[in-house]
Design a protein that fits this description.
Largest sheet: none
Structural class: mainly alpha
CATH class of one domain: Mainly Alpha
Order of helices and strands: HHHHHHH
Distance between the termini: 83 Å
Length: 172
Amino acid sequence: MASPTLITPSTSKSQPLIIPLKPKSSISAAATTTTHHYSRRREFLSLTASVLAPSWVLFPPAPALASSDEEYVKDTTEVIGKVRTTITMDKNDPNVAAAVAELRESSNSWVAKYRKEKSLLGRASFRDMYSALNAVSGHYISFGPTAPIPAKRKARILEEMATAEKALLRGR
């Protein structure tokens, strides 16, 4: 149980918890002059540095685009051809695993190269191509490189490839 002396208020005068700050007018004139001197020196040095610095430091070159439009069309057409040849291969063909490995490598490089291009994200050809590559890669990752693609999935992939190819021809 608490002692009665802790509960009763003290009769002594309590000290304020907040210590008042001295007004700013008491700052000496020497401190103001020194601060003013340093700010002028900073301005002078920054102006001098901006005049003497080479232009490539002040204005760095714009980041290079991953590719031109012609390169995008060429790469996309190549990947479409690889996808078509790979998914239409016979399941007993001994080269299926190597073809799937090559397709995965080329599709991964295509996606890595063009996914970060904001100018391509809205294109119909990019959208359809990305969807088809996702379906093909997902199938081979899940079921292995020698598993045949089901007829419905194959039809959808081939349809997306045809749509992407038409969009490429139209410049979309």
